[in-house]
Design a protein that fits this description.
Blueprint lengths: L2 H12 L4 H19 L2 H6 L2 H5 L4 E10 L5 E12 L5 E7 L5 H17 L5 E7 L8 H15 L8 E4 L6 H15 L19 H19 L8 E5 L3 H12 L3 E2 L1 E3 L3 E4 L6 H10 L5 H5 L5 E4 L10 E4 L8 H9 L4 E3 L8 H9 L3 E3 L1 H4 L2 H15 L5 H25 L6 H19 L4
Parallel strand pairs: 3-4, 3-5, 6-7, 6-11, 11-12, 12-13
Antiparallel strand pairs: 1-2, 2-4, 8-9, 9-10
Helix pairs in contact: 1-2, 2-5, 2-17, 5-17, 6-7, 8-9, 8-15, 8-16, 12-13, 15-16, 16-17
The structure holds glutamic acid.
Length: about 450
């Protein structure tokens, strides 16, 4: 059996009931086949692949907190410190009922390669809890965040592990966590990113994932003879990534016509009203029915369905495995030319293969959504030098990073004989830097 197949089989055997982790590992290792096979004995002797698929450290802890009725609640929490070969662990904290160890491991694994692609010195990590901030009072969210950080603070620090936001963890949660870290550790340091602007946050961090997604998509289209201007765009999700993807798409002259949340979706043929969407989602924390109620031309549908709308560009910005083979078929039938992932692994493996086989340009999340974590690394730089850069400075660095990422993928795909396969390009380019650093640092 080839070394790649051996390691895939081992991962499945040693990590039972973690399908998302298996999926992420399979996708990466399949792409690396050409690289590994060129020097298989060396990689095998060093157990390089076994080391890269095994987290350096995994923390599992309980989070007890008291709800508004005086009842004690208990949640499971995780921090997976996956790989620190190229920098301190870096990656978000997901707060969602679906969170379990397998989900955090898939996200942490993806993060290693994503962070490598940014070109910045950040290793891979991820964390979170099955706590659901939805429907909780501010006091309950604070109680959870303080209890969570009381344990987590023992394992993180500005030079060791720097968490940030993800699904369910936004500005409010980061603020509560930062306050508790500072209180216990007595350190005013850049231990979290995505902080508020009044206490060490970076301008443009809020916008960064969505804006970065569009910068990369624009470059990918341009290099393939298309212009983003005038394109109809379908977006899923209505959180931080989707909102700022929609905003930047409009600034670049495209027309985003859809968005979605966990209960339904919007089709707004005139183009999404970003101010209204922000009001509904960021201020009121309400459902998309409220958007439709205030926007006569928009349709609201229960369930899922954004990928049935005819578009040129599809941007899945909600969550993992939200774009299936049937969705991919609908997109191709409707003439879609490009898919770029704003979320982490939103496209299933068979859907990705179908899109690529049908010549749809496909930018994987670990490249396309890297603008968020890249700007987090810029926040770390500003914290270290105790200075704040202007919005324009951060935004122009972000744009450069995204354009460079695209060319790295493109070059790596070409170099290994897979021109236009940006999935392979991303996995190979991300892997080579981490593998080089791991080999240089000996057996650790
Ligand atoms: N959660 C984001 C991601 O998936 C951002 C992580 C960060 O800024 O550290 O990349």
């Amino acid at each position: 059996m080839s070394y790649v197949d051996e390691v895939i089989a081992q991962v499945i055997e040693k990590n039972p009931a973690q399908p998302e982790f298996h999926q992420a590992v399979k996708e990466v290792l399949e792409s690396l086949r050409v690289v590994i096979e060129a020097d298989e004995e060396k990689y095998r002797k060093d157990a390089l692949l076994e080391r890269i698929v095994t987290p350096e450290r995994q923390l599992l802890f309980r989070v007890p907190w008291v709800d508004d009725k005086g009842q004690v609640q208990v949640n499971n929490a995780f921090r997976v410190q996956f790989n620190s070969a190229i920098g301190p662990y870096k990656g978000g904290l997901r707060l969602h009922p679906s969170v379990n160890l397998g989900i955090i491991k898939f996200l942490g694994f993806e993060q290693i390669f994503k962070n490598s692609l940014t070109g910045l010195p950040i290793g891979g990590g991820k964390g979170g809890s099955d706590f659901d901030p939805k429907g909780k009072s501010d006091r309950e969210v604070m109680a959870f965040c303080q209890s969570f950080m009381t344990e987590l603070c023992k394992y993180i620090g500005a030079d060791t592990d720097v968490p940030a936001g993800d699904i369910g963890t936004g500005a409010r949660e980061i603020g509560f966590m930062y306050g508790q870290y500072k209180r216990i550790r007595g350190l005013y340091e850049g231990v979290l990113t995505g902080k508020g602007l009044s206490y060490g946050g970076s301008l443009a961090r809020t916008e960064a994932t969505g804006y970065g997604l569009l910068y990369l998509t624009e470059e990918m289209l341009k290099c393939n003879g298309h212009d983003i201007k005038g394109k109809t765009v379908c977006v899923s999700g209505a959180g931080n990534v989707a909102i700022y993807a929609i905003q930047k798409a409009q600034q670049l002259g495209a027309k985003p016509v859809t968005c979605s949340d966990s209960t339904g979706w919007i089709y707004d043929p005139e183009g999404i009203d970003v101010a209204l969407l922000k009001e509904v989602k960021e201020v009121k924390r309400a459902r998309l029915t409220e958007y439709a109620a205030k926007r006569p031309g928009a349709e609201y549908h229960e369930g899922r369905g954004v990928w049935t709308i005819k578009c040129d560009v599809a941007l899945p910005c909600a969550t993992q495995n939200e774009l299936t083979l049937d969705d991919a078929k609908a997109l191709v039938a409707n003439g879609c030319i490009a898919v770029a992932e704003g979320a982490n692994m939103p496209t299933t493996l068979d859907a990705t293969e179908y899109l690529q086989a049908n010549k749809v340009l496909f930018a994987p999340g670990k490249a396309a959504n890297a603008g968020g974590v890249a700007t987090s690394a810029l926040e770390m730089s500003q914290n270290s030098e105790r200075l704040s850069w202007t919005f324009e400075e951060v935004d122009s660095k972000l744009k450069n990073i995204m354009v460079n990422i695209f060319h790295n993928l493109d070059d790596a795909a070409k170099k290994y004989g897979m021109e236009g396969n940006y999935v392979a390009g991303a996995n190979i380019a991300g892997f080579l830097k981490v593998a080089d650093a791991m080999q240089a640092q000996g057996i650790v």
